[in-house]
Design a protein that fits this description.
It is a single chain. Helix content is 71%, strand content 0%. The protein is elongated. 11% of the residues are buried. With 143 residues, it is an all-alpha fold. The protein has one domain: 3 helical TM bundles of succinate and fumarate reductases, CATH 1.20.1300.10.
Length: 143
């Protein structure tokens, strides 16, 4: 019975430099934060996405300009453009998979548990990073 009456520690004044560096965020917390970051990244890079799409489908000449931009023939070095596109690939994949995770949790209220939250968060991180590595290898011409 004494275990039930033991008082939990209270944190009233959190020092950002001392306490936050030692705090271990659970996988679900990382997925939540990265879900917001990926959405913000896609929103901020929306003009680039529109330009990439427009340039790739307008005509054969614009498609040549599109492909030459990835080879370094544009206003940005090719490797830098590929890194930005790789970040967009990750942002889309992570946002999509995390969104499916949230939809599943909304639909199946009874199946949601602490263990499911942890497992689904780890699956979300592994899938988004794994698919990004595979598509990034294709983007950089490794296969």
């Amino acid at each position: 019975m004494p275990e039930l009456t033991r008082k939990r520690p209270e944190f009233r004044n959190i020092n950002a430099f001392k306490d936050l560096t030692t705090y271990r965020l659970p996988a679900a917390g990382w997925v939540s934060i990265l879900h917001r970051v990926s959405g913000l990244l896609m929103f901020l890079l929306l003009p680039l996405i529109v330009w990439l799409f427009d340039t790739s489908v307008s005509s054969e000449i614009s498609f040549e300009r599109f492909t030459s931009a990835f080879a370094g023939g544009g206003w940005l070095p090719g490797w830098l453009l590929k890194l930005v596109v790789l970040a967009l690939i990750w942002a889309y994949l992570h946002h999509f998979i995390a969104g499916l995770r949230h939809l599943w949790m909304d639909v199946s209220h009874d199946a949601v548990s602490k263990q499911f939250g942890k497992t689904s968060a780890v699956v979300t991180l592994v899938l988004s990073i794994g698919l990004t590595v595979v598509l990034g290898a294709k983007l950089f011409g490794l296969y």
